Amino acid sequence: MRFPRRQRESVEVNLTPLIDVVFLLLIFFMVSTTFDTRRALDLILPQSSQASAVEQAPLILSIAAGGDFTLGEESLAESELGTRLAEYKDQADRFGLILEADGRTPHAKVVKALDAAAAVGITRVRISTRTRTDISPPDAP
């Protein structure tokens, strides 16, 4: 018995959708990369013969290795930290508060200083660091 042979349809991959997607991606990247970022304005500021430099004096709070607080040149007890920071709040708002802590200062003291500054509304707090000049490893406990 002879069975009729079926004719196989040729298998073709339709590349039209693939080409459409590639062109869409190409257009998207072309459009998105042509945006030019705006740079800072070149300004020529007026000059004055009466001008004087503004002396910026940020408020500096130092914490020693033992946890002793110093605000500017004045030593403080931990209990009076909040009240003294409140007195200098205007200066800290204008120029910021710089927190300098020794590397061996207990973390709780740094957090206490940050909490005291936040409690009186000082929001511009920077932590001061220094570049390391020696390459020696830190002391092991």
Structural topology:
Layout lengths: L15 H18 L25 E5 L5 E3 L2 E3 L4 H7 L1 H7 L1 E5 L5 H13 L5 E3 L14
Parallel strand pairs: 1-4, 4-5
Antiparallel strand pairs: 1-2, 2-3
Helix pairs in contact: 2-4
Q: Would you kindly provide a written description of the structure presented here, covering whatever features stand out?
A:
The protein is an alpha/beta fold and 141 residues long. It is 32% helix and 13% strand. The protein has four helices and five strands; from the N terminus they run αβββααβαβ. Strands 3-2-1-4-5 form a five-stranded mixed beta sheet. Helix 2 crosses helix 4. The longest helix has 18 residues, at 16-33. It is elongated, with a radius of gyration of 33 Å. The protein starts with 15 loop residues before the first helix and ends in a 14-residue tail after the last strand. The mean pLDDT is 78.
